[in-house]
Amino acid sequence: KACWRCSHTRLFSATRVCSSTMTAWVIEKYGSNEVLRFSKDAPFPVINYPNEVIVKVFAAGLNPIDVSMRGGHGAATFSMQRDPLNVLQSGSEFPLILGREVSGTIMECGLDVKYFREGDEVNLRNLFTSHVCLVSHKPKSMTHTEAAGVPYVATTVWSALVNTGGLTEDNCATKRILVLGGSGGVGTFAIQLLKAWGAHVTVTCSRDAQQLVGALGADCVVDYTAGPVKDQLEALGGKFDLILDTIGGQTEHWAPGLLKPWSGSTYITLVTPFVHNADVLGVADGMVKTAALWTSRVFKHIAKGVHYRWGFFAASGPALDEIGALVQAGQIQAVVEETFNFPRVPEAFQRMEKGHARGKTVVQIT
Ligand code: NDP
Question: Who contacts 158 (Cβ-Cβ below 8 Å, separation ≥6)?
């Protein structure tokens, strides 16, 4: 669907302390956790285009990519987005505010913004480059803390399953789906969306997460720490129509073999080499290498009767609206594992670095 209320935003952070500055956690170079610095004078965003809004952020969700970006992952790709003509000096992205999804209220609207009004409660996924940002009304049944953990994983799952995998509310009921890695931010959301649409869902996770994913609706749960996961999945009997892989690495060598061949079945992995290749080789050479890799894998799998795809996050306000309706209907809930208040942002990053997530980590700003 086209999103007619698409609004560029320049936001993320915290509270305004005067008209031109705000408090925020920033980094001024890439590195480990000590590069995070609390700033009272981060530049306050301004509305540059009539379809922009400014959002006062009450809570922000963290994702593995925020930790990676703190260390410089994606610097080449995001710098190209910020500065496509490459006219700015190296390091011009600093001070950089990390974070990719928030919940808050609209503070100011550009002149063309009709869909939102000041004071509306919204959640959204933002890009710092401001090229795309799609905002959705926050589901009323969710707190800001809960809503902040939804946009990035929800629109990633939507993009992978709906746009890439071709799943819809109407065609899911007959499908057997495998989610590799069901206990993290993406997995816990994917299970719920698939169950809301009536699919049969099999999930892999660690032993201690079995109860969590079962409570979210998973029909079959396989403990990947209990022995070769491929054998366990084969022992269940029956092949899959679609696999969503949030783990990557070795899984891609064996998982497509669990799909029903020659029936339109699809393996979608979220762990793709695009950003890494751009970091190592530069954007242009990285794209060439990535395209060659993608093509070879797609054709290798087509020869075996299954589709091989990469899934990517794609911002979508309409998707968030549809997800909001499922939330309001009680079919999807936020899975927030741990919250940290604003002064504890470095601890929140440390929590993310430990891994073994059971849902989302959220920072409460106010
Ligand atoms: P999280 O860190 O929230 O969750 C990862 C989960 O996987 C944890 O619960 C972990 O628990 C579990 N896990 C680890 N190893 C295995 C395994 N071998 N089998 C089953 N489960 C395992 O990450 P997210 O859910 O947020 O993201 C998942 C992946 O998707 C990340 O690599 C992320 O970068 C990628 N992603 C890609 C996007 C894109 O646009 N392409 C967008 C969003 C995410 P435990 O270790 O205890 O088992």
Answer: 193, 314, 316, 319, 322, 323
**CA-closest residue to ligand 1 atom 26:** 185
Q: How far apart are alpha carbons 333 and 3 in whole angstroms?
A: 25
Does the CB atom of residue 249 touch ligand 1 within 6 A?
no
Residue pair 254/272 in contact (Cβ under 8 Å)? The answer is no
Partners of residue 62 on adjacent β-strands: 361
In this structure, the residue with its CA closest to atom 7 of ligand 1 is 181
The minimum-distance atom of ligand 1 relative to the CA of 188 is 25
Residues 6+ apart with CB under 8 A from 355: none
pLDDT in tens, 254-306: 999 999 999 999 999 999 999 999 999 999 999 999 999 999 999 999 999 99
What is the Cα–Cα distance from 175 to 330, expressed in whole angstroms?
22
Q: Ligand 1 within 6 A of 156 CB? A: yes
Distance CA 330, CA 344 (A): 31
21 CA to centre of ligand 1 in angstroms: 35
DSSP calls for 68-95: HHHTTTTHHHHHHHH-TT--SPTTTT-S
Ligand 1 neighbourhood includes 205 CB (under 6 angstroms): yes
User: Based on C-alpha coordinates, what's the Rg of the chain?
Assistant: 20
CA 12 to chain centre: 16
Kindly report whether the global pTM for this prediction surpasses the value 0.80.
yes
Question: ipTM > 0.90?
Answer: yes
